[in-house]
Design brief:
The protein has six helices and three strands. By secondary structure, it is mainly alpha-helical. Bound molecules: zinc ion.
């Protein structure tokens, strides 16, 4: 057990363990090239720290869906006024976070490769054209909120305590 940190340090610095043998699978796990977005299913370049979302917008969408699912579980369709107001605000925020936030000071995310199959394909309203990005996003969030069980991994209420494991399990 005590040798693990040393191996990790060597791998991070690009040193070869064992004097020039073939690289094992361990370094690639320590330094994945891409992560999967828990919200949209796209793949994006792995940066310094593990992160479950390709963009701030995907993070905002996931947070909104979790909040709405929790509110429905607690109040049904009869939401208290304060919860309803907060929910409206979160939905608007998630939908308008469309462009990358140029004012955050954070580096722009690398290109996101969309998933081969839209993860919500069988649930989305097929009448909405692909070009209507806002309507598709809103429809996606709505079906996730109203679904009996979670449709995306980040929709579970305990996400904050499980996302690291999920990100690592889906890193490549
Ligand atoms: Zn995403």
């Amino acid at each position: 057990m005590s040798t693990l940190p040393a191996v990790a340090e060597l791998a991070v610095e690009g040193a070869t363990v064992g004097g020039g043998g073939a690289p094992s699978a361990v370094p690639s796990l320590l330094r994945p090239e891409t992560y999967e977005c828990a919200n949209c299913g796209g793949r994006f370049e792995a940066r310094n720290r593990p992160t479950p979302y390709c963009t701030k917008q995907c993070g905002a969408e996931a947070k909104t869906v979790r909040y709405a699912r929790k509110a429905r579980a607690e109040h049904g369709t009869d939401l208290p006024e304060t919860v309803r107001t907060a929910l409206h605000r979160q939905f608007v925020h998630a939908l308008t976070e469309c462009a990358w936030d140029k004012w955050s000071g954070e580096p722009e995310p690398g290109p996101v490769v969309p998933p081969e199959v839209e993860p919500l394909a069988e649930h989305l309203d097929a009448q909405i054209p692909d070009s209507d990005v806002f309507a598709r996003r809103a429809n996606g969030m709505k079906v996730r909120v109203l679904a009996d069980s979670e449709l995306r991994p980040c929709d579970v209420q305990e996400w904050d305590s499980v996302w690291r494991d999920w990100v690592n399990a889906h890193a490549r």
